[in-house]
Amino acid sequence: MKTKIFRANERGHANYDWLKANYSFSFANYRNSERDNFGALRVLNDDFIKGGTGFAEHPHHNMEIISIPLQGGLKHKDSMSNKWIPLLTGEVQVMSAGTGVLHSERNYDVQEELNLFQIWIIPEKSGINPAYGQKSFDPEERKNKLQVLVKSYKDAEADDLSIHQDARISRIDLSGANTFEYQLKSTNHGVYLMLISGKVKLNDAMLESRDAMGIWKSDSFTVTAEDHSEILFIEVPMFF
């Protein structure tokens, strides 16, 4: 097993007044040649957006984009005819940019701050048709058990959120002293574990809120919660 720890205070940061961003990987004006990506995972931004503000219309292409609100909500519109769709805490959005899409996002509330993860995953092939999906997830269904949020389009069923990469995004809320063994889909995959909140132990390492760890060259690993902990797993191919 290979591992690498990414501490929360070592992330890139930007403060645009309306947006406070934390970059796990090189993005915008933050450049770190040792943190350009983790396999097919290209971006994991931890964004805090002021009420009534947001991202103006901008383009994307050939990227799988996943948005996970953690507190508050956003509204989304795009060139696929979606007009200011609300995306609230408890929901997940996927957008396959493919051949090209324009979209804009704004904080749904005019006063309260929005916090969300924005995740970009490099697709297995370019030039696919743009697509959009959104789904609500019950937090009760991830208490001490894995809740899969996003699957590969090859594995997904009709009601699932899917992307064009052999990847899987999932969450678990572990009670203190509980353990969970994560099984990887493939030994050619790696997992980027982001600790949303709490405190966990993995091997001999202790992770605290917003710390992350990359794990690869393994078929499984075990996480132990020291306190109540919310964990996000992003499993991606390491060779693609």
TrEMBL record:
<comment type="similarity">
    <text>Belongs to the pirin family.</text>
</comment>
<protein>
    <submittedName>
        <fullName>Pirin family protein</fullName>
    </submittedName>
</protein>
<dbReference type="InterPro" id="IPR003829">
    <property type="entry name" value="Pirin_N_dom"/>
</dbReference>
<dbReference type="InterPro" id="IPR041602">
    <property type="entry name" value="Quercetinase_C"/>
</dbReference>
<feature type="domain" description="Pirin N-terminal">
    <location>
        <begin position="13"/>
        <end position="121"/>
    </location>
</feature>
<dbReference type="InterPro" id="IPR014710">
    <property type="entry name" value="RmlC-like_jellyroll"/>
</dbReference>
<dbReference type="Pfam" id="PF02678">
    <property type="entry name" value="Pirin"/>
</dbReference>
<dbReference type="Pfam" id="PF17954">
    <property type="entry name" value="Pirin_C_2"/>
</dbReference>
<feature type="domain" description="Quercetin 2,3-dioxygenase C-terminal cupin">
    <location>
        <begin position="154"/>
        <end position="236"/>
    </location>
</feature>
<dbReference type="InterPro" id="IPR012093">
    <property type="entry name" value="Pirin"/>
</dbReference>
<dbReference type="InterPro" id="IPR011051">
    <property type="entry name" value="RmlC_Cupin_sf"/>
</dbReference>
